[in-house]
Amino acid sequence: MATSSILDLGTKPTRSVAVSSVKELANLKSIPSSYVHPTMTNCEASDSRPDDGSIPIIDFSLLVSDDPDERSRMIEELGKACRNWGFFMVVNHGVGVDLMQAILDDCNEFFNLTTEEKLEFQGKHVLDPIRYGTSFNASVEKSYFWRDFLKAFVHPLFNFPNKPPGFSELANEYCSKIRRLTNELLKGISASLGLEPSYIAKALNLESSLQIFITNYYPPCPEPELAIGIAPHSDHGILTLLIQNGIGGLQIMHDGRWVEVNPISNSLLVNTGDHLEILSNGKYKSVLHRAVVNNKATRISLAVADGPSLDAIVSPAPELLDSEENLAKYRPMKYKEYLVAQQSNPISGKSALDRVRI
Ligand SMILES: O=C(O)CCC(=O)C(=O)O
Ligand SMILES: [Fe+2]
């Protein structure tokens, strides 16, 4: 058994307890001290407000409609959502409800495999194409997240665990649909920036886009107010499309406050990533988000993140720059290097972007 995801819990008795997943901790009465998260003990930073219905909603069927007026209206809405929120819900997206339910069921089945079976998929390096693990990057973290995860690079090459039976086939189907949807959303987003619809796809070489399947497992936590499922961060790619098993927990930062996301049923939740911020020269900022935990029910989420090709060197679109008011705010960097840096360090807000910020 490799040591990288065996956590030393720092419990009071001197003998430390090693676990390879939080699923194994779900029966505790209190959380080990190593799971008390600093962002949660600071009341001001942990305070959140309910979603009051103001999160933008994008009707995908209108974005691809034959009616040019409907399309322009949705492109405008998409631009506003990216500029003001970095987050929106997509409805009428054409990804079947049955498929969404089935893939979430399979994610649950994966986490129900024995520890030994799951550890077969434990990656050792952040670029390993399949990685099962716990927390975020347990080898560099001081306090752990109440979260187990499976990450798989599913495009341009499809890598996936071979169990439970049928999971891989279903994931392939789901991720292809999400990729098509993402590409259409990016056409609209390009247009909303005043660029050719295919601009982003060409600039970031999306034919070989890195698509990552990330499923998160947050079991009930005995002291949810002290622990965090995943600490505040932005995603490194362009867009992430997320679904969940009906249990809430995702929060996004908006106007300086955490907003609890209450998804419209069967919608897909979309957030903008760091590489859209870089390409748009800061017009569309990546959104800070986090997942909180509860003491009642297991939450499962599935985030499918699309990013540039690993070899793409990304910089602000020259069409959005000039020599006066719109100087470049980010330095060019190869996506692969950005990804390794972000994933190798403890997660910390939007600190990965600081490496390229001018
Ligand atoms: O579980 C969630 O709602 C958020 C997960 C997330 O932010 C991530 O996997 O990057
Ligand atoms: Fe995220």
UniProtKB/TrEMBL annotation:
Residues 208-308 form the Fe2OG dioxygenase domain. GO terms for molecular function: metal ion binding; oxidoreductase activity. It comes from the Eukaryota. Pfam families: 2OG-FeII_Oxy, DIOX_N. PROSITE patterns: FE2OG_OXY. Keywords: Iron, Metal-binding, Oxidoreductase. InterPro entries: DIOX_N, IPNS-like_FE2OG_OXY, IPNS-like_sf, Oxoglu/Fe-dep_dioxygenase_dom, Plant_2OG-oxidoreductases. Belongs to the iron/ascorbate-dependent oxidoreductase family. This is F3H2 protein. It comes from Reaumuria trigyna. The gene is F3H2.
